[in-house]
Amino acid sequence: MKIAIGCDHGGIVLKNAVNRAIADCGHESCDYGAFTAESVDYPDYAVKVADAVVAGEADLGILMCGTGIGISIAANKVKGIRCAHVTDAFQAQMCREHNNANIMAIGGRITDADTAYKLVKIYLTSQFQGGRHQTRIDKIAAIEAREAGK
Ligand code: RB5
Predict the structure, then answer these.
(1) Is 30 a catalytic residue?
(2) Going by CA atoms, what residue is nearest to atom 5 of ligand 1?
(3) In whole angstroms, what is the distance from residue 24 CA to residue 41 CA?
(4) Is 85 a catalytic residue?
(5) Percentages helix, strand, coil for the chain, rounded to the nearest 5?
(6) 132-138: long-range contacts (C-beta < 8 A, 24 or more apart)?
(7) What is annotated as the active site (predicted)?
């Protein structure tokens, strides 16, 4: 798979660990920046990764900011994105199995690099379970469609 990654200055500390986890899972990462620790605005990177996932240029995405919160909120504004803000292994597993999250967001100021490595590996190796979970995702898409019509 191709995995799009993006971060701001608060998340860049996790980039090496995230790239290592992606490679160790046998996938290719595609880096949409940021590339330095200079202060930047996380929505600019959220939208690049979200657009890549929606366009099919990437299969999944990983976003990083200081907390993972802002960048996940921004990504979830893009139609078709289900971005999960994740802090532990169970969330990393469930966001794929139940929510079919197509982006996972983590925070460089709340999650250390070793944990980030593990979370990405769990996220990339978990499988969506479908069934009743698909029904619920369809309902999320219906909300999205309703909002677009306003
Ligand atoms: C940047 O200082 C910080 O606000 C950002 O990385 C993130 O934590 C926002 O949610």
Answers:
(1) no
(2) 66
(3) 30
(4) no
(5) 50, 15, 35
(6) 133/97, 133/98, 133/99, 133/100, 134/100, 136/98, 137/82, 137/99, 137/100
(7) 65 (proton acceptor), 98 (proton donor)
